[in-house]
Design brief:
- With 192 residues, the protein is mainly alpha-helical.
- The protein has six helices and no strands.
- Helix 3 packs antiparallel against helix 4 and helix 3 runs antiparallel to helix 6.
């Protein structure tokens, strides 16, 4: 039941991002010269590395889900034995990777602001910051969800099916956020 509810909620989130994409493409179509000028300021190699970190975090998240499905909450061997990691270790790594992504996004924002691209500066700045900013808020929400799941594993006396379901639901959200970013990255950074 929780999984179905999450999927329905994610469908509504998809509609939200669809509106952002539609707005982006509409305003871009009206002012193509502005887009040609402003997109030269984007640091595509940096954004590509940042995107890779976020996409790989989906892999670590899913490895945490597999551990949760096995009922393995913590590692079964030393910290360097990655093959024996449990839900906690994989979700902590996913959290760190998500935080690195947010830090990278903040770094990029600072660079663009120094170059004069701000939210009130132009239609391009408005759409860039709205689309990437709302995505960043969603990533931050996912990071908070990881903290809740991890906190529950430390507070509970034993790992239950409900905790495994919570980990799975958080992974749905995290994968959704990653897929949305792939679309945003292609739209903003690759399509000239």
């Amino acid at each position: 039941m929780v999984s179905v509810g999450t999927i329905v909620w994610l469908a509504s989130e998809l509609m939200f991002f669809a509106v952002l994409f539609a707005s982006y493409f509409t305003i871009r179509a009206v002012t193509p010269d502005l887009w040609a000028q402003e997109t030269t300021k984007l640091n595509v190699p940096f954004a590509s590395v940042n995107t890779t970190v976020l996409v790989l975090s989906s892999v670590t998240c899913q490895l945490g889900v597999f551990a949760a499905e096995r009922g393995q909450v913590g590692r079964a061997a030393g910290i360097l034995n990655v093959g024996k990691w449990g839900l906690r270790e994989w979700f902590m790594l996913t959290y760190v990777m998500g935080a690195i992504f947010i830090g990278g996004q903040a770094t990029e924002y600072a660079s663009l602001v120094q170059e004069g691209t701000t939210i009130q500066d132009s239609a391009y700045g408005t759409m860039f910051y709205l689309t990437t900013g709302f995505h960043g808020l969603h990533v931050t929400g996912g990071l908070i969800a990881f903290l809740f799941v991890l906190g529950r594993t430390y507070m509970a006396r034993r790992f239950t099916h409900e905790q495994a379901v919570s980990a799975i639901v958080v992974s749905y959200y995290w994968h959704f956020v990653d897929v949305v970013w792939i679309g945003l990255f292609a739209t903003i950074y690759l399509i000239k």
